[in-house]
Specification:
Blueprint lengths: L3 E4 L9 H17 L2 E6 L9 H14 L5 E4 L4 H13 L3 E4 L3 H13 L15 H9 L5 E4 L5 E6 L3 E6 L7 E3 L8 H10 L4 E5 L3 H14 L5 E5 L2 E2 L15 H6 L4 H10 L12 H7 L10 E2 L2 H14 L2 H10 L5 H7 L8 H10 L11 H9 L10 H13 L3 H13 L7 H8 L1 H8 L1
Parallel strand pairs: 1-2, 2-3, 9-10, 11-12
Antiparallel strand pairs: 4-5, 5-8, 6-7
Helix pairs in contact: 1-9, 1-10, 3-6, 6-7, 9-11
Bound molecules: glutamic acid.
Length: 442
């Protein structure tokens, strides 16, 4: 069986790292099973969906390395939803309701007073044809509710195990607004049937929807897919990450210079049984992350952890993996990469670090170190230089001056780089070369 999954964001805001979780978990599943991945833009909410947000979502997928096999937009598929609507009306599962917000609120209050759950009382099912004709004549247009069977709906969640949603404790959901537009619930099922989705992998905030939607799948005679509901990424203190907040949007993370693979790891490995280690490709990540590794507990996202992950990823990248990006900066030399990578937090830091090699550098030589540095200049080994040169030179300086540890190394570092810390001098020195070193020591 070919697996077909879908990622179904609504283009009503920029995606944040929490949205990247289902996006990537579906993609990793697709990489493991070799099936298909559909990007479905859930843009039935015309008032809030925009073309710019849709483009933003596609940019975010591209940046993270997700390549959908197919992209569809719900706004292009209304005819399918209309057909499903007619089927459900004909079978009596979709019924028109003329209740106003005030009437609904009054009914909820009444239920609460009687100690009953505040679910919809199905008052619309008692309307006669004459009532409906009267409302219509008054200019009222109905919204439409799906008549739930009101039963325990069971399914085996691929992450959470056996689940039961009792639709008897739920209000019949509104599937169509009074203006005729569809809410998310019905189009999603219609698309899942039409596109032959085999696995629905989405956040656990959808578990109760799944109960409703399984009833809709059955009412439409469609094959019910497998479901996997993952824990949601929360902030460090457990609060949700909101898409519309715009904070921590993927676009922001990209602008701040985070590596897509660091973001991908933070989005997927938090809240799993696996440690947050860097991986350099989504394929490698897919290999270690089956759905079964996702935990039932919470998935906390810590921005500081992302920073450290980003740094660790950069430190582990081979030259070949970054050569094109280094070339764009005119820094495509393997020894340079190997000397500097372990001091990077974001890749862009490389430009400033490279000036330690290429200059200009403003040497710092304290008054008390003047003689010491003059001696260092005299003892600077002859070329050719390699990774041993630093050791030979500092050994000679130690023997000549009796200095050791920080007293020995720091003045040399300050004179050669103008900084208190930075890349290992052992690697840096041969790249700076003898001539530039002599200049800096003068
Ligand atoms: N558009 C829905 C959402 O963003 C999709 C949920 C689903 O995967 O079915 O929550």
């Amino acid at each position: 069986m070919t697996t077909i999954v879908r990622y179904a964001p609504s283009p009503t805001g920029r995606l944040h790292i929490g949205n990247a979780r289902p996006m990537l978990l579906n993609w990793l599943f697709r990489l493991r099973t070799g099936g298909q991945y559909i990007l479905r833009l859930d843009d039935t909410d015309q008032a809030r969906s925009t073309e710019a947000f849709a483009r933003g979502i596609i940019d975010d997928l591209t940046w993270l390395g997700v390549k959908p096999d197919l992209t569809v937009r719900q706004s292009d598929r209304t005819a399918l939803y209309d057909r499903a609507r007619d089927t459900l009306i004909a079978s009596g599962r979709l019924y028109p309701c003329f209740d106003t917000e005030d009437e609904l609120e009054a009914a909820r209050m009444r239920a609460r007073r009687l100690g009953l759950p505040p679910i919809y009382n199905r008052q619309a099912l008692t309307l006669t044809d004459a009532d409906r004709a009267r409302f219509t004549a008054e200019g009222r247009t109905p919204h439409w509710r799906f008549r739930l069977e009101g039963k325990p709906v069971g399914f085996t969640d691929l992450i959470k195990g056996p689940q039961t949603v009792n639709t008897a404790s739920m209000s019949d959901p509104v599937l169509i607004r009074a203006d005729g537009t569809y809410l998310y619930t019905l189009p999603s099922v219609v698309d899942d049937i039409d596109l032959r989705i085999t696995h629905v992998i989405r956040g656990e905030d959808h578990v109760s929807n799944t109960g409703t939607q399984i009833e809709i799948f059955e009412a439409l005679g469609g094959a019910v897919p497998e479901f996997a509901h993952h824990n949601l990424l929360t902030g460090a203190d457990g609060e949700g990450l909101s898409k519309r907040l715009g904070s921590l949007s993927l676009a922001d993370l990209r602008a701040e210079g985070f590596e897509p693979m660091a973001v991908a790891v933070a989005a997927t490995l938090n809240g799993t049984s696996l440690p947050l280690n860097p991986y350099s490709s989504l394929t490698a990540l897919a290999d270690v992350l089956p759905l079964s590794a996702i935990s039932h507990g919470s998935a906390r996202f810590d921005p500081d952890e992302l920073k450290s992950l980003n740094a660790r990823l950069l430190h582990s990248l081979d030259y070949a993996e970054v050569a094109p990006r280094l070339k764009a900066l005119g820094l495509d030399r393997e020894p340079l990469w190997l000397a500097l990578r372990s001091n990077l937090t974001v890749f862009a830091d490389i430009a400033a670090l490279a000036t330690l090699i290429t200059g200009p550098v403003t040497p710092v030589i304290a008054e008390v170190d003047k003689d010491f540095i003059a001696q260092a200049r005299d003892l600077l080994p002859a070329e050719p230089w390699d990774s041993e040169t630093w050791g030979h030179w500092t050994k000679a300086m130690k023997d000549a001056t009796g200095r050791k540890g920080k007293d020995l190394f720091l003045p040399l570092r300050l004179a050669l780089t103008g900084r208190h810390d930075g890349p290992e001098l052992k690697a840096l020195l041969p790249l700076v070369g003898r001539k530039a070193s002599l200049d800096r020591l003068s």
